[in-house]
Design a protein that fits this description.
Length: about 350
């Protein structure tokens, strides 16, 4: 691995005596026959770019590509094993069941921890421009421990997805979360950034929000997102909403504070309404108002249920965190990876 020196100021200085070892981490779920043989199409592209980086003297020859099978139900794991057997730059791990995209990413990061100088996470379908990795490595050499790939535009998205995605980032920003606008999970992390990330132990993972909390020098590089090589998105609207809820509740307590503010406002309005009702009754101005009563009761009841739902979401997160269940369990590893990390199976 490349030599890294931490200066007294806390800034990283990469010594040029040795090239950094790079791991590309690619989470996979049903990317085999049921996913249009996505891996068979994109894996050679990843390898070609990695070989080019090695040939150009950007990264060390022991760099590799790590595929993380997130409990696929098709032949994805067999394809990963075949790739691993075809050359030393391919490796893979298989999780014991489907844990979700964020946990699969974390599993790959923790597998790479202590075994490389830098790692880059990217999608398996070729939408993340693999050629951007060279600029990420250059940014690392210039002193950045975290390099986030940021989409240069969202013109390829439909109007609904573009509006909801950008709106979500703006909402997170308003809630006080430190996130990078238009950044998904295409990023480079240095070895010390990985060590910092390993100290975060929450089960409710939202890596786009956790990585900025690690600190260390960071930067962004822009890239153009391509059309999917094969397969289909594993993030339908339901999962996108779930990810958004996890992002908000994992990074900010402002929704709870908003509920508190609403409670104060409506308590004050209710007090004013009670005074008005009493005064009106004493003056004999009251008129039977069934419709208005129903509207007020319905509105207050709906608001209360909404507030209880938000509170319940946080209570549920506390419940899951208190159990301290493993965020993933590694069931199998390919070839060399199996012999190197035989003892570590869960995290």
């Amino acid at each position: 691995m490349g030599a890294v020196h931490v200066a007294p100021t806390g800034k990283k200085c990469v010594m040029n005596t040795q090239l950094p070892s790079l791991w590309l981490i690619v989470p996979c779920y049903n990317e085999g026959s049921s996913g249009g043989d996505c891996l068979r199409l994109t894996a050679p592209q990843f390898l070609e770019e990695l070989d080019l980086l090695i040939e150009n003297g950007k990264v060390a020859p022991d760099s590799r590509i790590l595929f993380v099978d997130d409990g696929s139900t098709d032949d994805t794991w067999k394809i990963i094993c075949d790739l691993s057997a075809s050359g030393p730059r391919y490796a893979g791990i298989s999780l014991s069941r489907n844990y979700g995209h964020q946990s699969a990413l974390l599993a790959g990061l923790m597998e790479a921890r202590g075994r490389c100088d830098i790692c880059i996470t990217l999608d398996r379908d070729g939408q993340d421009d693999i050629r951007t990795t060279e600029r990420m490595v250059d940014a690392y050499e210039e002193g950045s421990d975290v390099v986030c790939g940021v989409r240069s535009s969202r013109e390829a998205d439909g109007a609904f997805k573009r509006a909801t995605a950008e709106g979500f980032y703006h909402i997170l920003e308003k809630l006080g979360a430190d996130v990078v606008f238009n950044h998904a999970d295409y990023r480079l992390l240095s070895s010390r950034a990985l060590e910092g990330l390993a100290q975060f132990s929450e089960s409710n993972l939202y890596l786009r929000g956790l990585v900025p909390l690690v600190g260390f020098p960071s930067t962004t590089v822009e890239y153009e997102r391509h059309e999917r090589e094969a397969g289909k998105s594993h993030y339908p609207l339901r999962k996108m909403i779930s990810l958004a809820v996890d992002g908000v509740t994992s990074l900010s307590v402002k929704p709870i504070r908003i509920i508190t503010a609403l409670g104060i406002v409506f308590s004050a309005l209710s007090f004013v309404a009670i005074v008005w009702a009493i005064v009106s009754a004493l003056l004999g101005h009251t008129v039977a108002g069934w419709a208005s009563t129903i509207c007020v009761v319905g509105f207050i009841g709906g608001l209360q249920l909404l507030c209880l739902g938000v509170i319940g979401e946080y209570v549920g997160k506390i419940y899951v965190e208190a159990k301290r269940r493993p965020r993933f369990i590694v069931a199998e590893r390919t070839g060399e990876a199996s012999s190197e990390k035989r003892g570590a199976h869960a995290a």
